[in-house]
């Protein structure tokens, strides 16, 4: 690194995300919305003060890994098991309905005389790929919002987490199938084998690590920092193995690493330490980077119409698809709505999928603009919708300081074994 500009970038990100976070809190919106807006305003899409650099990208990647690791630490495994079958149904319909919706919109607009395509793949494959983009879910936004509200460990919160993990796997399968049709070098069978291998790895390796870690930490009351370091090592190794060897998202590996360490002695202490790190540095950089990497290309009137329709379909199909899935699994109506709204955000996941499709000729360059618009709008409105769905009749859900940074310490001092439930109870009491 030849200059110290990254220090200025970091200072601007931390300051702007905090200021905008406080402003959004003032209007009873999640602080994560402020962080997203800060990145969007300072990035190339608006004022161009900040741009995506290798440093910001890598720090943000670590940020989302730690965020999902903390989510795993905070997850009630028993509740997650109970919602496992429901999560699969929710995820399946949350993929199929947006896929059909995106295909329908693309079929209508992506034709000669309306939108001219320069992609090499057939029109049908291009249209299907637009649907594949809409299947993506960026669970990190929902996780942060749920943590901020103290709702991560609720029935709906666990269903969102479980469905998002399965959604990631189903999204990989859908992307692989459509990519293999356009690129002969992609082998669907190999991808399926890798996914199965990942869950075998998590099941066997995770169980052994859990037993070893549980025995190791038992009885220690001093020098607990060592457990934090080893926990981070496990998190990073699982994230690396998920991406490198199995083709699964690194955040999925991080989440399962958190599940391995949860329900062990000093889990609360470990979660608090990671929470502070995430709160003061990693999370602000990650959420700001989503906005920073947004660049809106020039769009014709027809492309703008396509973008508007695609946004509406992107939002409604996730809410309807996931909501129907939750209803089939006998969730209450309010929980169905919460789950559907928790799955709306596409975030950086959709951008990655779009970039992949553009590289192999599955998407016209002219359609990149509408995809970016979908990412921006769904990412910003998802936490707002989630907040509204959890609001009481009075509409008052107070957003306090970050749960980990402020209340974890209180939980630890009070000797609470389950910090998440303690935090949630404190929030509800207010």
From TrEMBL:
Location of the Cation/H+ exchanger transmembrane domain: 16-386
Keyword set includes rRNA-binding: no
Gene3D superfamilies to which the protein is assigned, alphabetical: 1.20.1530.20
Key words, A-Z: Antiport, Ion transport, Membrane, Sodium, Sodium transport, Transmembrane, Transmembrane helix, Transport
Record's subcellular location: Membrane
Key word Transport present: yes
Chief localisation class: membrane
Protein family per UniProt: Belongs to the monovalent cation:proton antiporter 2 (CPA2) transporter (TC 2.A.37) family.
Record's protein name: Cation:proton antiporter
């Amino acid at each position: 690194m030849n200059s110290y500009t990254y220090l200025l970038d970091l200072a601007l990100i931390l300051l702007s995300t905090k200021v905008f976070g406080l402003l959004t809190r003032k209007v009873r919106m999640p602080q994560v919305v402020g962080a997203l807006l800060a990145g969007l305003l300072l990035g190339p899409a608006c004022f161009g003060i900040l741009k995506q650099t290798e440093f910001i990208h890598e720090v943000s990647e670590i940020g989302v890994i730690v965020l999902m690791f903390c989510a795993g630490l905070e997850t009630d495994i028993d509740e997650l098991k109970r919602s496992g079958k429901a999560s699969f149904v929710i995820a399946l319909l949350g993929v199929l309905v947006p896929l059909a919706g995106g295909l329908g919109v693309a079929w209508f607009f992506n034709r000669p005389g309306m939108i001219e395509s320069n992609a090499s793949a057939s029109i049908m494959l291009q249209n299907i790929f637009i649907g594949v983009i809409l299947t993506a879910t960026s669970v990190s936004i929902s996780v942060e919002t749920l943590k901020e509200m103290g709702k991560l460990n609720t029935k709906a919160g666990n269903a969102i987490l479980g469905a998002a993990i399965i959604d990631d796997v189903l999204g990989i399968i859908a992307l692989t199938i459509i990519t293999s049709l356009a690129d002969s070098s992609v082998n669907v069978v190999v991808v399926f084998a890798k996914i199965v291998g990942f869950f075998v790895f998590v099941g066997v390796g995770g169980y052994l690590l859990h037993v070893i870690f549980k025995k190791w930490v038992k009885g220690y009351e001093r020098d607990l920092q060592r457990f934090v370091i080893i926990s981070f090592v496990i998190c990073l190794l699982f994230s690396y193995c998920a991406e490198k060897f199995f083709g699964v998202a690194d955040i999925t590996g991080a989440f399962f690493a958190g599940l391995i360490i949860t329900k062990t002695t000093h889990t609360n202490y470990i979660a608090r330490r990671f929470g502070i790190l995430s709160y003061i540095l990693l999370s602000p950089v990650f959420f700001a980077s989503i906005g920073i990497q947004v660049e809106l290309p020039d769009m014709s009137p027809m492309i703008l119409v396509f973008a508007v329709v695609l946004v509406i379909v992107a939002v409604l199909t996730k809410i309807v698809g996931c909501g129907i899935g939750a209803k089939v699994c006998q969730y209450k109506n309010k929980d169905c709505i919460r789950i559907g709204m928790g799955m709306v955000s596409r975030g950086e996941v959709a951008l990655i999928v779009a970039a992949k499709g553009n590289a192999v000729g599955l998407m016209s360059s002219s359609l990149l603009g509408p995809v970016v618009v979908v990412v921006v709008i769904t990412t910003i409105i998802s936490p707002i919708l989630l907040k509204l769905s959890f609001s009481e009749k009075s509409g008052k859900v107070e957003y306090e300081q970050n749960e980990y940074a402020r209340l974890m310490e209180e939980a630890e001092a009070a000797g609470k074994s389950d910090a998440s439930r303690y935090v949630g109870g404190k929030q509800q009491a207010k």
